[in-house]
TrEMBL record:
SMART domains: GAL4. InterPro entries: TF_fung (IPR050815), XnlR_reg_dom (IPR007219), Zn2-C6_fun-type_DNA-bd_sf (IPR036864), Zn2Cys6_DnaBD (IPR001138). Pfam families: Fungal_trans (PF04082), Zn_clus (PF00172). One of its GO terms (molecular function) is DNA binding. GO terms for cellular component: nucleus. Residues 17-47 form the Zn(2)-C6 fungal-type domain. This is Zn(2)-C6 fungal-type domain-containing protein. Its main location: nucleus. Keywords: Metal-binding, Nucleus, Transcription, Transcription regulation. It comes from Hypocrea atroviridis (strain ATCC 20476 / IMI 206040). It is found in: Nucleus. GO terms for biological process: DNA-templated transcription.
Length: 502
């Protein structure tokens, strides 16, 4: 062997290389301050000395690590989802799944839900009947299945269900678990994920905050539901019986979730009509939730399709009637917000709206008697809507100078509603009606009925009116052990009586 060959030392060629595009400066610079690839993508060239005979430098490895690349890919997919939906649908068509790490307080609060399912029974027996947007069958088969590893979105949903089903929270509504779940929901928002189960957890959190009068969080959470639901396209689920890419059951669950958001959005504004609701009214051809009994039996395919323009019947089910009552409540808001062309036009509009509310109330009461439901939330929402429609103090005086007239609509309906709520209060005191049957959607009409009796006592001095007001207030105190919002309403009754603001 040639000695010169043995002593030859191969010196690797060292030349500057751009770490953004992995091209040598000689290949990509060509006399320009930046390489063409970096100019195309708006990047700054960063040159390091590169050994052609060696692998990528540690700096390059760090900049192109798999974790960082995957993160950037997920962020890009979400950007495309919002910036160009057509491109997203035709190229990616799927957002990344949620990835979260939960804190110890949240995990200890949930516990072993595969074996301890008392809260599941409580949820489906107390909360679910008035707001049935979860498929009980799918929840049991897919989320509670011990053979299926729990996904982060499912854990969030389970946590909010348990929080809502906890009837006697020891630390009050603003407990440690509440803040842990809120923190996890905020983390889910920042994790580049949009999932139906996360939205359903947010809806349950909104119900919890409304029921326990956690403001302004409740108002903001409902608004968050609207935005999240719109991002998922749930507002379109009420227009189509079966959506592309979803089964009939999945479409029904998405549709019910959107109706739940719409109901909360309308109900949230009852105390302050100056606030505008965030969800637009569905079209008259919009699809209502199917009958609740069919939903529970998982027979969606055989269910008749009911649309919003159809007259209400008991065959529609409780949640369908709740959705229709929320639409009518929205019409009442519009009647109050939009100045009419003339007094005659406004009076006719009020009469028609009032008659429609009366008809829906009758159907709701009949449906409750038929199915053994003591307190039907569609009825109480209709009561609140009628009382609002005829409450002259909540009209703008400058725009509705004729709203003070009371001769075109009989006012004795207010006493009828108040008497009905008084009977409910007496049933609560006697124990024949459990506070668990009262949903947060019932509380406003109960409160307004107490205000009616208080006003009548102030006007006439009749002791029976004062006793009726006190009885309803006492019932609210009892309900307050389950829903703190009821206790707040009871305090407001005291404030009205003391100040004379009736």
């Amino acid at each position: 062997m040639d000695i010169a060959s043995e002593s030859r030392i191969i010196i690797p060629r060292i030349r500057p290389s751009c770490i953004q595009c992995q091209r040598s400066k000689k290949r990509c610079d060509r006399g320009k301050p930046h390489c063409s690839a970096c100019i195309r993508y708006g990047r700054e060239c960063v040159y390091v000395l590169r050994d052609d005979s060696a692998s990528m430098s540690s700096v390059e490895n760090a900049s192109l690590s798999p974790v960082k690349a995957a993160q950037e890919s997920e962020e890009s997919s979400h950007a495309v989802f919002f910036l160009d939906s057509v491109l997203f649908r035709r190229s990616m068509n799927r957002l990344p799944e949620l990835e979260l790490s939960f804190t110890d307080p949240l995990l200890s609060f949930i516990g072993d839900f595969t074996s301890d399912r008392d809260f599941v029974h409580l949820y489906f027996s107390t909360i679910h009947p008035s707001m049935p947007f979860l498929s009980k069958k799918k929840f049991t088969e897919r989320i509670l299945n011990p053979l299926s590893p729990p996904r982060p979105a499912s854990i969030l949903l389970i946590a909010t269900m348990k929080l809502l089903a906890d009837q006697r929270p020891e630390q009050g509504p603003r407990c440690r678990a509440y803040y842990s779940i809120k923190s996890s929901l905020l983390e889910a928002e920042s994790s580049c994920s949009l999932e139906l189960r996360v939205l359903q957890a947010i809806i349950l959190m909104a119900v919890f905050e409304v029921g326990h009068a956690i403001y302004p969080a409740a108002y903001l959470t409902v608004g968050y539901c609207v935005r999240y639901g719109n991002a998922l396209g749930l507002h379109k689920a009420v227009e189509h019986y079966s959506e592309e890419g979803f089964s009939v059951t999945e479409s029904e669950e998405r549709r019910r979730s959107w109706w739940a958001i719409l109901v909360l959005d309308r109900y949230m504004n009852l105390g302050c009509v100056d606030r505008a609701f965030l969800t637009a009214d569905p079209s008259k051809k919009s699809i209502l939730p199917i009958d609740d009994a069919i939903w529970e039996e998982n027979r969606e395919i055989n269910a008749p399709v009911r649309r919003l323009f159809e007259p209400p019947t008991t065959a529609m089910g409780r949640f369908s009637l709740t959705a229709q009552s929320a639409i009518l409540l929205g019409n009442v808001f519009r009647s109050i917000h939009e100045p009419p062309f003339s007094e005659a036009f406004w009076q006719n509009d009020v009469k028609v709206l009032d008659s429609t509310l009366v008809a829906l109330t009758s159907v709701s009461l009949e449906e409750g008697r038929h199915r053994g439901i003591g307190v039907c939330s569609p009825s109480t929402i209709c009561y609140s809507a009628r009382l609002l429609l005829h409450d002259k103090e909540r009209y703008a005086v400058d725009e509705f100078p004729f709203a003070a007239t009371e001769d075109f609509i009989p006012q004795d309906f207010k006493r009828d509603i108040a008497d009905g709520m008084l009977q409910l209060a007496e049933a609560i005191h006697s124990g024949s009606c459990s506070p668990d049957e009262i949903t947060p959607l019932c509380l406003e009409s109960i409160y307004r009925s107490a205000v009616f009796f208080g006003r009548e006592y102030s006007r006439t001095g009749t002791l029976s009116e004062a006793a009726s007001c006190a009885a309803i207030k006492g019932a609210l105190d009892v309900i307050g052990k389950r829903w703190k919002a009821a206790s707040v309403y009871a305090q407001m009754i005291d404030a009205r009586m003391v100040t004379g603001i009736l």
